[in-house]
């Protein structure tokens, strides 16, 4: 009987700690999701700002913005990075790439630094796509983004090929 006491104590402790963990998860999950959604919205807002800046830079009128070849669009795609799925948003004005943001990922901290809007990812929409290389410290992560953006650009160019202002 004495041999069962430590097992019983451990079982009770594990049950209590497991219950505490489950309760904590129950109450923190909504807040975590809210923060995740807020972070995504901040990234998308950054793309909207880039689009508006490009529109102002080109001095486009409201009438021009209704034309097919000046259509402003933000689209999302999902690609598999080193740490899992990455949700990538691209902003286009017509067939011209304006900017890119990674709105969710599970990449390793440090490697994901290139995804910060102040870092490597800010070169999208500023430099030609064929002049943007992967980052050696985050090859898989940055290659994933680069390939996803190339696919999005090809889709946008294809969609714009049928563009007619008679639409």
Which properties best describe this structure?
alpha+beta, 167 residues, 3 strands
Please tell me about this protein's structure.
- The chain has 167 residues and is α+β, with helices and mostly antiparallel strands.
- It has one domain (1-167).
- The chain is 49% helix and 16% strand.
- It is built from three helices and three strands, in the order H-H-E-E-E-H.
- A three-stranded antiparallel β-sheet has the order 1-2-3, sandwiched between helices.
- Strand 2 (85-93) and strand 3 (96-104) form a beta hairpin.
- It is elongated and about 85 Å long.
- The relative contact order is 0.12.
- The model has no long low-confidence stretch (mean pLDDT 89).
Overall mean pLDDT score?
89
Shape: elongated
Please give the number of β-strands. Answer: 3
Structural class: alpha+beta
Q: How would a textbook summarize the main sheet?
A: 3 strands, antiparallel
């Amino acid at each position: 009987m004495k041999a069962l006491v430590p097992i019983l104590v451990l079982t009770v402790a594990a049950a209590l700690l497991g219950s505490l963990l489950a309760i904590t998860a129950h109450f923190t999950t909504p807040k975590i999701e809210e923060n995740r959604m807020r972070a995504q919205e901040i990234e998308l807002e950054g793309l909207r700002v880039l689009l508006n800046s490009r529109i102002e830079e080109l001095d486009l009128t409201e009438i021009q913005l209704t034309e097919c070849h000046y259509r402003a669009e933000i689209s999302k795609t999902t690609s598999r990075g080193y740490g899992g799925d990455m949700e990538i948003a691209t902003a286009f004005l017509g067939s011209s790439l304006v900017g890119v943001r990674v709105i969710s990922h599970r990449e390793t901290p440090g490697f994901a630094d290139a995804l910060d809007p102040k870092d490597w990812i800010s070169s999208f929409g500023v430099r030609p796509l064929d002049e943007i290389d992967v980052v050696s410290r985050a090859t898989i992560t940055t290659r994933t983004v680069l390939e996803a953006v190339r696919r999005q650009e090809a889709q946008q160019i294809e969609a714009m090929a049928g563009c007619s202002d008679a639409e």
